[in-house]
Amino acid sequence: MLKPANDNPPPAARTDGRAVLELTVANHPGVMSHVCGLFSRRAFNVEAILCMPVGDGRQSHIWLLVHADTPLEQMVAQLLKLQDVFSVRRHEAAHDVFVRLEEYFRE
Questions:
Q1: Which helix (H) or strand (E) holds 74?
Q2: Residue 43: which region, alpha, beta or left (left: phi > 0; alpha: psi -120 to 50)?
Q3: pLDDT tens digit string along 34-92?
Q4: Model confidence, pTM
Q5: Residue 79 belongs to some domain of the structure
Q6: Between 93 and which of 18, 50, 65, 104 could a Cys-Cys bridge form, CB atoms 3.0 to 4.6 Å apart?
């Protein structure tokens, strides 16, 4: 199920045409391949990916920066059909995870 984000990005960030999908998944070999394969098979571009284990390491969070002008609801429904995906949340593109990461890659 697509859960609403708790964060409230500034209005300017809402118009850039991108969104962040935050997935909670089982942490084992092959999970990233299954998630990325789903996007690849549908020719759906992912601009950025970040994955980190949480808690005791049995689960991970995967953040995907994607274009919001494509039918995300259908992609979320397909993601939730994957056995290793426990939840999916949508955030605006100004979600802290990528905003802070961009600081490391500025030229």
A1: helix 72-81
A2: left
A3: 999 998 888 888 888 999 999 999 999 999 999 887 678 888 999 999 999 999 999 88
A4: 0.77
A5: yes
A6: 18
Tally of domains in the chain = 1
Which conformational region is residue 84 in: left (phi greater than 0), alpha (psi within -120 to 50 degrees), or beta? alpha
Question: Is 6 part of any domain?
Answer: no
Which helix (H) or strand (E) element contains residue 104? Answer: none
The domain in which residue 51 lies consists of 17-102
CATH code assigned at 55:
3.30.70.260
Residue type, 75: M
Residue 78 inside a domain? The answer is: yes
Of the candidates 100, 98, 102, the residue with the CA atom closest to the CA atom of residue 20: 98
| Amino acid identity, position 49 | I
Query: Alpha-carbon distance 17 to 69, whole Å?
Result: 6
Strand (E) or helix (H) holding 67: strand 59-67
